[in-house]
Amino acid sequence: MSDSYEYILKTEHVSKRFGSLEVLKDINLAVKKGEVICIIGPSGAGKSTFLRSLNQLEKITSGKIFIRDELFLHRENDHTVDKLPKEKQQELLLEMGMVFQRFNLFPHMTVLQNVCEAPVVVKKEKKEQVEVRARELLEKVGLSEKADEYPSRLSGGQQQRVAIARALAMNPEIMLFDEPTSALDPELVGDVLNVMKELAESGMTMICVTHEMGFAREVADRVLFMADGIIAEEGTPEEIFTNPKVERTRNFLNAILEA
Amino acid sequence: MKKFDFKKYSKQIITAAVIIVICIIFAVLKPAKDELLSRTSPAMQEMIAADENSTRKRVTVTYNDLLVINYVSLSSSGANVMSEKYVGLLGSVYSADEGGMKVVGQMVNYTYRMLGCGENLMHGAKLTILLTTLTVIFGVMLGTLLALGKISKNKILAKISSAYIFFFRGTPLLIQLFVVYFTVPGICGFAWRDLFPASDAEAVYKGAFTAALIAFALNSGAYCAEIVRSAIQSIDKGQFEASKALGMTYGQTMTRIIIPQSVRRMIPNVSNEFIMILKDASMVFAISLMDITTISKNIMTSEGSYLVFIPALVIYLLITAFFGYIFDKIEKKFSVYE
Predict the structure, then answer these.
(1) Contact B337/A150, CB-based, under 8 Å?
(2) What is the pTM assigned to this prediction?
(3) What burial letters (b/e) apply to A161-188, b meaning 16+ CB within 10 Å?
(4) A106 vs chain B: nearest CA distance in angstroms?
(5) pLDDT tens digits, residue range B54-84?
């Protein structure tokens, strides 16, 4: 059944309002399995809000969210019109891993415990099995020797790689990255991006909100430019970066690339 | 585990060491009972001799076994006729009522009494420590539930918790104690001592202690709720989001992620609350329980000694220092990750 769907994730007319402030206006996006999508745009454009509303950290005001072609949630004017039963919702949400700008590692747990926590507690997997997998994941992000350290002893880049391993430990189908390198010192960005590249190459479906244009250009299958709560422009990296059609995109890219 | 930091606790260690050394010196050098009797004043010796020949014993010799101060007192049908106190020190026997030795003698005496014999400060200290420790333990547990209630999305739960906190912080502890001890059994028709078998000679006191513990824990719960709530709310929102993104339920997030992190942040405040309760514990006098304060007051009244309060203060300080050390340790244990 795993491949019997067309889109792994789809949104229709998603909008989000904080009081009178409209953050998202009618966002439509369809993601195929294995696609890597980068969302770029000025701050305040609603990029993070959109990402967060995908895995229900924000409740959308109205619109529809489909996961594997199933209607996951349908809301109109802050009221839920239709949704999957709670267990099914929970199950599908586990298919989405999220990496935050500020890492949000659990500071009272070691690196290994951080990675093992959710599979053991949420999926009730056997601790020994999870630990084996966790060590493999830490190896993959290049931190196997830090397994027993507390997060506070790690650099920002190392913490972010642990956070990626933590999300991967749940075996998600989609990874959401919310500006994963924005809180890092410039020299630490590379390590994190490398891990993300490898992940993209391994066929993971990814949606990344990012300011790393080089990364977006190299890795993304599709780039979305968001501004003022809408997707202002959408296309391949080639189209967006070399020949942007919308003026807003041009201005933004000029500003970024000159900086 | 870090090694014990002697430097940091030098104050407390020196205080304790000095007290212990003084006690040992006094204990080793105490005069034997016969020797003590032979050193009483001529007037007292005369009375003792006369008493031995009389049919109606009038002399009570109180020889304080543990030590230092020794009483020889003479009483007649309950009234104190003559009394001498002696301090055994370096082989000499001084009358404790003479000059400067009176002060030294009484201080040493009360230090001994607090270290353990008869109705003494140590009994009071035991009650105070037991009541305070249990109150804090139950208070924190209750406070955690109340805090979770207060921040919960369930409006009814939040209202109930807020009302509880409002009530117990807005009324005097003493009246709460009276209500638990007198009003509740009055309305419900039971007596606190009935909780214990009638054969138990201390049923009355155990009953009163239970009532005091309930009142104190209910009260402390309200204060701890605010401590726990502010600790929980000081945890970065990102921790909730990360837990949710990993699929953890609210309960799992609270018990596995949020509360373990808040524990460290609430320890300084809980330590504060502990010290407050330690002193509030003296209110149990109102339901006929004897804590340090009550007993020192009783000793003052019955023996006319105004010095008893000084060892009482020392006991409070020692308890505070000891538990301060414990709380410090706990805080360290919980902050290994920082």
Answers:
(1) yes
(2) 0.75
(3) bbbbbbbbbbebbbbbbbbbbeebeeeb
(4) 7
(5) 666 555 555 443 344 455 555 554 455 555 5
